[in-house]
Write a structure and sequence with these properties.
It is a single chain. The chain has helices spanning about 40-45, 65, 70-80, 95-105, 165-170, 175-180, 215-220, 240-245, 250-260, 285, and strands spanning about 1-10, 20, 20-25, 30-35, 55-60, 85-90, 110-115, 120-125, 135-140, 150-155, 185, 190, 200-210, 230, 265-270, 295, 300-305. It has about 300 residues and is an alpha/beta fold. The longest helix is centred in the N-terminal third of the chain and has 12 residues, at about 95-105. The protein folds into two domains: about 1-160 and about 200-305, Ribonuclease Z/Hydroxyacylglutathione hydrolase-like (Metallo-beta-lactamase, Chain A), CATH 3.60.15.10; about 160-200, no CATH class. About 25% of the residues lie in helices and about 25% in strands. The chain has ten helices and 17 strands. Strands 1, 2, 3, 4, 5, 6, 7 and 17 form an eight-stranded mixed sheet that branches. Helix 3 (about 70-80) packs across helix 4. Bound molecules: zinc ion (2 copies).
Length: about 300
């Protein structure tokens, strides 16, 4: 299962109840922070989420409303005694964007390691020891005014375990769990692969975080059949459609269209302009196009579970 918590839902200006862009994902005791705008730490405290053991921070782009929370967060991690390295990923320009932030943060007792993810995504256990097997983080290109990307997090699910087949292959019961989790094992000098004892792979889970973007095909393709999509909804009204396109954002209707086109299960709107005082007053614009749309707010959380 995957837990997702929206931390910051504002764009450009932090508001009393709205921090700047950020969302937190945890899965099997490991975690990813998507963007880290100003106010992320406070929002996490309010939501009861600890960021201290975050394994990787995935930045969608380097506008201040998505990264200015980083030096403060790093200092807190330092003062809380963190010594595990912290991986940071982002689109083109990552090293240059990190340099002044690292300078601001000063000496830290943990390492900050920039990582460029391959286009096809990265199996996270290959980078972070112990990250749940089958967890993959994949960036996709978005349409903003600067180099930008969104992220797709997927958790695959192995087929149903067939104990009779495992017993017939002399697999001791103590090793069942390894095969169930998708790992190969060795028994009496023979390699037993999960495929030998598992049924067909079952539907996994998928979470998509758009970052700042206009409606684009790469977004709808990346979000295809996602269980949860968190999409840019900087503008509310339909009259602002062209403004949204020009600024590399979406309005409520465009975000809902993208969710419908991608056939996602549920949509959370986020990254509201300060002009939007009460996002829920505009929700019907999105619901007209996509039923399962929700106005995101700081602290909104959900647990995504495998279907039976
Ligand atoms: Zn932004
Ligand atoms: Zn931006």
């Amino acid at each position: 299962m995957i837990d997702i918590t929206l931390l910051g839902t504002s764009s450009m200006l932090p508001l009393p109840e709205r921090a700047l862009s950020s969302a937190f994902l945890s899965c099997g005791g490991h975690s990813i922070l998507f963007d880290c705008g100003e106010g992320t730490q406070t929002a996490a405290r309010k939501a009861g989420v600890s960021l201290m053991k975050t394994d990787i921070i995935a930045l969608t782009h380097y506008h201040g409303d998505h990264i200015f929370g980083l030096p403060g967060l790093w200092q807190t991690m330092h003062s809380m005694g963190r010594d595990e390295p912290l991986y940071i990923t982002g689109p083109e320009g990552l090293a240059a964007a990190l340099r002044p932030l690292v300078t601001l943060a000063g000496a830290l007792n943990f390492e900050i390691i920039p990582v460029i993810l391959p286009d096809g995504g990265l199996e996270l256990e290959t980078l972070i020891k112990g990250f749940k097997h089958g967890s993959k983080l994949t960036p996709f290109k978005t349409e903003h005014r600067v180099s930008s990307c969104g992220y797709c997090f997927t958790l695959s699910r192995a087929g149903k375990f067939m104990p009779d087949k495992a017993k017939a292959l002399n697999v001791p019961e103590t090793m069942f769990k390894l095969l169930q989790s998708g790992r190969s094992i060795e028994v009496d000098g023979n390699i037993i692969t999960p495929e030998q004892v598992l049924g067909a792979p079952r539907k996994g889970l998928k979470f998509v975080f758009s970052g700042d973007t206009a409606y684009c095909d790469t977004l709808t393709e990346a979000a295809r059949d996602a269980d949860l999509a968190v999409f840019d909804a900087t503008y509310a009204e339909d009259e602002q459609e062209q403004t949204a396109v020009e600024h590399g954002h979406m309005n409520f209707t465009q975000a809902a269209k993208a969710a419908a086109e991608a056939n996602v299960k549920r949509l959370w709107l986020t990254h509201y302009s300060q002009m939007i005082k009460e996002p829920c007053e505009y929700l019907d614009l999105a619901e007209k196009i996509f039923d399962n749309a929700v106005c995101g707010y700081d602290g909104l959380s959900v647990t995504l579970e495998f279907e039976e």
